[in-house]
Amino acid sequence: MVSPTPSTTATPSSFQARNLSLLVAAQALGGASPPIIISLGGLVGQQLSSNPTATTLPVSIYQLGLALSTLPAAWLMQRLGRRWAYVLGAVLGVVSGIIAAQGIAQSDFVTFCIGTALAGFYAACVQSYRFAAADAVGAPHLQAKAISRIMVGGLIAAIIGPQVVIWTRDALPATPFAGSFYSQAALAALALPILLLLRLPAPQKQAIVGTARPLKAIAATPQFIEAAAAGVISYGLMAFLMTAAPMAMVGCGHSVGEAALGIQWHVLAMFGPSFFTGRLIGRFGQRKITALGLVMIAASGLLALMGEGLSEFWGSLILLGVGWNFGFIGATAMLTACYTPAERTKVQALNDFLVFGTVAIASFGSGQLLHSVGWSGINIGMQPLVVIVLAIMAWQARKIKS
């Protein structure tokens, strides 16, 4: 059966709306896995590893697995189509949760790390749902709204993931935390029938073998550099600061509970604006909203420098979350204008490799840098990075006008 071809009307067709709804549901289930891994990975590592410096290794390996999986996942999407690649990703999501739980049950740190590493492939597929949404609607003026709508699924995931941890971490008293990773597997299993219902357009012949520029040539274009730089800085700084903030809060005398509450507000701020980010982009343009997001990320660092009280920490984390939402959704929308159908998959894969490779590096280095330069040093150091990207965007905007 031939899948319907997406239309380019002013609003999504019923076919497009159905696919978007399925992708939102899949995002809500698939996006719930990272909070489980990130919130419990260090605690399980502390429980299983005799080396104190290796306690956060499961989380860092998960981030590395995500980054390294972007390219093979894209290859599978190009050859098999997005739906079957996503189904395979969910299957690996099930397997990864079971392996991680078995690692806990057997008190085997290496097995647990293998489980979190495999979860990276599923996460790489989940991260590409936003591109599937943009491709599904087709019309450029609908893409930002489609991406924003998928990110609403992230808001649901941000609620599901922590609640699953609370409900299931002691479900198996003999093996604390194993229940949460079995639940991670169950969430991936629930996503399988949803993904099987997707009817995304099959890879067109011209999109696979058509005329396409070399990836190196595309990566050298000002449009790609601008979009990728904005995405890398938006996501990289957010991940780095989110990882360091709880440690900084506890180091400043705040309780673990207060630090956890700050992260909860941060995550809600990350995804809450998705209800209207697409409309803002439609009204003011991709570049302006992306730039606003970067300015808000810089402002979060300046607020953090004003003091070490809860209001400074929590306010900074909320600003950081909203800034990430505007910056990352805007950068993703900007990226969709950088490629032709024949170039789409490899450009999306390169972008995500750069973004999540940066996140993996940030995950490995945040604790050490916090120890070396302190919370204030981190927030000062981030400012030039934001300024550089804003300068690139201003130069590109001026070039387009002239």
Rg from C-alpha positions? 20 Å
Number of helices: 16
CATH topology of the largest domain: Growth Hormone, Chain: A
Write the CATH homologous superfamily of the largest domain: MFS general substrate transporter like domains
CATH top level label of the largest domain: Mainly Alpha
Average per-residue pLDDT, rounded, comes to 86
State the separation between the terminal residues, measured CA to CA: 49 Å
CATH architectural type of the largest domain: Up-down Bundle
Class from secondary-structure proportions: mainly alpha
Pattern of helices and strands: HHHHHHHHHHHHHHHH
Largest sheet: none
Shape: globular
Poorly predicted runs are 1-10
The total beta strand count reads 0
Proportion of residues in extended strands: under 5%
User: How much helical structure, as a percent, in the residues?
Assistant: over 70%
Number of domains: 2
